[in-house]
């Protein structure tokens, strides 16, 4: 069971999925660009960071600074995010919950609406 | 690599406000994104995205560093607290806040309007790409009786100077006429039809949209501004289309449109409706259609003085040297004529961007404004802002005592003085920003009104005027500091213990400053009222001034320019005159080449004669038989023109000034004397009294009148006997249209023409009046706020005095003594100001009022009256208080 207050919001889920996809290189801008490219959805850098911060407070991701800094970032290291165990659990829970609900939709309800 | 860094201030802000742990990661992201954007787009765009992305973080408190990350209170918390207490304090004293705010809003609106006006008036001709190298060749004309400056010079000056003087890079000249345009059976009259050369476009910052400016060499083409092209051709492509132009030389030209250019900006001293090639004018002159066949065009070149001539000098050219060489050229070419006419001609180079702010030059095609006037308005704008800020200072220092406890507690809790100062500066800052926002909101719907009173186009959107934005920010910053500094200083200096013990009360701190500030406000007010009085009186004086000529109920018709050279013109004019006289209500009709209220451009100098002074400069004009009767011009000696005298074709009527300038002892002595002009000799048969040919701001002019025999006069004046002018005007128009169906009908009232000469004065008066009223209203608002407060503080004093038996009248004196004293001090200080500045302003006028005692006393009593009326309500309230109520709490 997942405790109340640790539910994933839609954007949170998206960001978590992207962090997982990016693996070693999940940092703010990369996540933003990935969402832009793959989801055709424009989010601002600040929103991504705010979401990541919220996820970190919930314990779903952990952050660390990259050991090496690159030139085009003005010598600033990347703040990298990785998914924690509870983060992974939350993702799976959300997916299962959704799949369950999908599988129990009676056929009739779609036919009626179309 | 400094090229590739985003705005520094953003970095500082981010570093300051972002959570320190997150900062490097976030800032790195932003930089990386910035570099990505630089690859794909422009730097400005990348910068914009960078700023917007960075600003996005404001939304997320969780990422900012004051949100519980640090256990200590940050300065952000303190600022939030200051903000809250400022807002609370402002809302607690709603009336004072309202008064300050209203004053500020009104003053901001007025100040912005004034500054925009001043900015526009001083921005004339600054848009040419090389405006500082552009000069107009202006002309100084001297003869035995006077010296005058003209905006125009000789036809030949342009070529002669640009050929001989190396520093002249380019030169052009302009000849300005009125033209009649015919299109599709319709006739239109266009002013500012100019003849010029192709160099015009190379020199000035006006750009062609269609066509090639070189084509203006071709004598058969015209170029049009966009608005005129639209007027005549609508949506059609105007290029290659034909416009028929009839002109003052009686020729009928079919001209092909070869170019369309952007309308000149409103702040250009050059204006045009149709641009014709100068070569066409030269052809017309060479064909003898301008000066007749008796004189060749070559002979005219150094005599024809009607060309606005412009030159562009090379960078860093020596102006004095060029002027000297130019004068030598004029001297050499004019020498024979000058000697004969006893004249002197000199030229000077007038920077083009100063043309609009120079006055007193004749043949200036459009009204100019004096620099002094711009400065005056600028000062009034600053006065108005100062008055509003002083209101805030006065009210807040008067109220300072009530915030003593707050200061004491803050100090006990560990506030620094500097922090308290910041806190008390925040309050005026909030007030100023709020006022600014309200002012801008109110300004937008007010723009049409402001445009109509200032006659200056306003920015359509507030943001397209960088200067204005800078100004607005400056106003707020300056306002906050000026109006907040002193209260902040007083409040932060309270002694903690004394304040908390309750030992503060009627602090004397700030009283002196407040008095000084009130005096300053009163000086402004009295001065403005006095100036208003002087300006109004001078205007009224000019409007009421005896002109020596009666211009009431005279309708002026512009004669048909396009018919002048027709054979039957004279006959038709005669028929028209008779038909007009047949209209009931029409009293007299007369043709003339000049009318009162319009600058007469035909001038001539007498030729030398044995033993007599030569080269007397005189105004010349043609008038019909009835002209003197029609305009009620008084005959002093001799007779009027008369149909019975065949010789009147060579007779002359002159005015008193001409008699004097010619050196005759009396009007009688001048009779039967002959005057020689280049075009013939004339015998003086009559002398009339002096009258104002132009507005009374100009001096009398020496006039000579010849008989208008061949209907050379192009004006037709119609004197109407009844007061139903409009009714008669309709019949006049019908008669005109009947006889000249192909000519546009244009009529005006002569007294309107005369009034129009005072347009700039009238506008000055209107602006001045409005601004002065605004300043007074704001000053009154401040006094209301201040006096209500001071009176309340005196409540106890008054109660005790009442208990001890003071009479109401004594109390009244005690309560208002200070205001009267302050008023008198201000008055004494204002007197010299009024004396100097108003005398200076009046010196601009030929006919002016004298400043007498009333101009000092009336403003004083007006201002004192306003003060006493403002405070009267509070005085009465305080006097009427029941002492028992006030004193029982002791």
Automatic annotation (TrEMBL), chain B:
Major site of localization recorded for this protein: membrane
Keyword Transmembrane helix belongs to the record: yes
Topology of the protein relative to the lipid bilayer: Multi-pass membrane protein
Transmembrane regions listed in the UniProt entry: 98-117, 373-393, 424-447, 467-491, 512-535, 767-786, 819-841, 853-874
Domain ABC3 transporter permease C-terminal: start-end pairs: 379-492, 770-883
Residue span, MacB-like periplasmic core domain: 97-327
UniProt keyword annotations, A-Z: Cell membrane, Membrane, Transmembrane, Transmembrane helix
Tagged with keyword Lipid metabolism: no
InterPro entries: ABC3_permease_C, MacB_PCD, Macrolide_Exporter_MacB, Permease_put_prefix
Source species, domain of life: Bacteria
Protein name per its UniProtKB record: ABC transporter permease
Pfam families the record matches: FtsX, MacB_PCD
Locations listed in the record: Cell membrane
């Amino acid at each position: 069971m997942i405790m109340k207050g640790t539910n994933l919001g839609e954007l949170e889920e998206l960001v978590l999925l992207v962090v997982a996809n990016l693996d070693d290189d999940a940092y703010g801008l990369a996540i933003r660009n990935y969402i832009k490219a793959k989801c055709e959805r424009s989010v601002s850098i600040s929103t991504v960071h705010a979401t990541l911060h919220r996820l970190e407070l919930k314990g779903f991701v952990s952050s660390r600074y990259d050991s090496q800094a690159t030139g085009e970032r003005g010598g600033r290291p990347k703040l990298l995010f990785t998914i924690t165990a509870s983060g992974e659990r939350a993702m799976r829970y959300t997916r299962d919950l959704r799949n369950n609900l999908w599988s129990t939709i009676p056929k009739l309800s779609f036919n009626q609406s179309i | 690599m400094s090229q590739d860094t985003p705005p520094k201030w953003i970095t500082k802000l981010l570093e300051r406000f972002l959570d320190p742990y997150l900062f490097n990661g976030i800032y790195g992201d932003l930089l990386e994104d910035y570099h990505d954007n630089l690859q794909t787009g422009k730097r400005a765009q990348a910068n914009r995205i960078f700023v917007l992305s960075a600003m996005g973080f404001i939304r997320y408190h969780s990422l900012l560093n004051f949100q519980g990350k640090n256990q200590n209170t940050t300065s952000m918390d303190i600022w939030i607290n200051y903000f809250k207490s400022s807002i609370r304090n402002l809302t607690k004293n709603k009336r004072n806040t309202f008064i300050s705010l209203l004053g500020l809003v009104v003053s901001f609106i007025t100040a912005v309007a004034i500054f925009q006006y001043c900015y526009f008036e001083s921005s004339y001709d600054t848009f040419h790409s090389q405006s500082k190298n552009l000069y107009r060749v202006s002309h100084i004309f001297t003869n035995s009786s006077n010296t005058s400056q003209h905006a125009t010079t000789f036809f030949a000056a342009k070529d002669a100077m640009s050929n001989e003087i190396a520093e002249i890079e380019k030169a052009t000249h302009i000849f300005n006429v009125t033209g009649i345009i015919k299109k599709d059976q319709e006739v239109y009259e266009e002013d500012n039809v100019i003849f010029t050369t192709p160099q015009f476009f190379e020199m000035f910052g006006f750009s062609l949209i269609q066509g090639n400016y070189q084509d203006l060499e071709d004598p058969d083409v015209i170029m049009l501004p966009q608005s005129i092209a639209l007027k005549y051709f609508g949506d059609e492509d105007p290029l290659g289309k034909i416009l028929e132009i009839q002109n003052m030389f009686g020729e009928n030209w079919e001209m092909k449109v070869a170019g369309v250019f952007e309308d000149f900006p409103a702040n250009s001293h050059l204006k045009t409706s149709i641009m014709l090639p100068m070569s066409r004018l030269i052809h017309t002159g060479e064909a003898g259609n301008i000066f007749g066949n008796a004189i060749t065009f070559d002979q005219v070149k150094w005599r024809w003085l009607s060309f606005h001539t412009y030159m562009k000098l090379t960078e860093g050219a020596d102006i004095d040297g060029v002027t000297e060489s130019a004068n030598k050229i004029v001297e050499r070419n004019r020498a024979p004529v000058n000697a004969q006419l006893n004249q002197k001609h000199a030229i000077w180079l007038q920077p083009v961007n100063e043309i609009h702010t120079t006055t007193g030059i004749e043949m200036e095609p459009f009204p100019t404004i004096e620099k002094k006037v711009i400065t005056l308005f600028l000062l009034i704008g600053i006065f108005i802002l100062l008055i509003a800020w002083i209101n805030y200072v006065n009210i807040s220092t008067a109220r300072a005592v009530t915030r003593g406890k707050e200061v004491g507690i803050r100090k006990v809790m560990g506030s620094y003085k500097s922090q308290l100062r910041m806190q008390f500066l925040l309050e005026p800052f909030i007030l100023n920003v709020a006022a600014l926002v309200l002012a801008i909101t109110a300004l937008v719907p007010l723009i049409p009104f402001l445009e109509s009173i200032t006659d200056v186009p306003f920015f359509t959107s507030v943001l397209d005027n960088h200067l204005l934005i800078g100004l607005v920010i400056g106003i707020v910053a300056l306002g906050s500091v000026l109006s907040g500094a002193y209260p902040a200083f007083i409040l932060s200096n309270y002694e903690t213990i004394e304040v908390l013990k309750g030992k503060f009360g009627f602090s004397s701190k700030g009283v002196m400053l407040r008095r000084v500030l009130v005096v300053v406000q009163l000086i402004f007010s009295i001065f403005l009222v006095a100036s208003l009085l002087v300006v109004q009186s001078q205007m009224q004086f000019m409007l009421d001034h005896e002109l020596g000529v009666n211009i009431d109920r005279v309708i002026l018709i512009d004669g048909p320019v396009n018919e002048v050279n027709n054979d039957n013109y004279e006959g038709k004019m005669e028929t028209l005159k008779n038909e007009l006289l047949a209209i009931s209500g029409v009293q007299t009709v007369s043709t003339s080449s000049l009318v009162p209220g319009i600058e007469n451009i035909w001038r001539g100098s007498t030729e030398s004669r044995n033993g007599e002074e030569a080269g007397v400069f005189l105004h010349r004009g043609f008038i019909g038989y009835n002209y003197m009767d029609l305009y009620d011009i008084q005959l002093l000696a001799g007779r009027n023109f008369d149909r019975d005298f065949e010789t009147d074709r060579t007779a002359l009527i002159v005015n008193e000034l001409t008699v004097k300038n010619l050196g005759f002892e009396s009007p009688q002595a001048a009779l039967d004397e002959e005057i020689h002009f280049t075009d013939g000799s004339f015998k003086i048969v009559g002398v009339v009294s002096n009258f104002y040919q132009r507005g009374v701001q100009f001096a009398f002019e020496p006039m000579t009148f010849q008989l208008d025999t061949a209907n050379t006069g192009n004006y037709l004046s119609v004197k109407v006997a009844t007061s139903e002018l409009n009714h008669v005007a309709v019949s006049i128009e019908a008669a005109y249209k009947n006889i000249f169906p192909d000519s546009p009908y244009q009529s005006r009232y002569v007294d309107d023409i005369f009034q129009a000469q005072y347009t700039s004065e009238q506008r000055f008066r209107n602006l001045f009046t409005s601004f002065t009223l605004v300043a007074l209203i704001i000053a009154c608002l401040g006094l209301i706020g201040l006096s209500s407060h001071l009176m309340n503080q005196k409540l106890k004093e008054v109660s005790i005095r009442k208990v001890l038996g003071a009479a109401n009248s004594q109390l009244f004196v005690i309560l208002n003594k200070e205001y009267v004293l302050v008023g008198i001090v201000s008055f004494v200080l204002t007197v010299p100001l009024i004396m100097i500045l108003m005398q200076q302003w009046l010196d601009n006028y030929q006919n002016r009022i004298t400043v007498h005692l009333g101009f000092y006393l009336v403003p004083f009593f007006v201002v004192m009256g306003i003060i006493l009326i403002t405070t009267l309500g509070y005085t009465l309230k305080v006097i009427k208080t029941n002492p028992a109520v006030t004193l029982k709490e002791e």
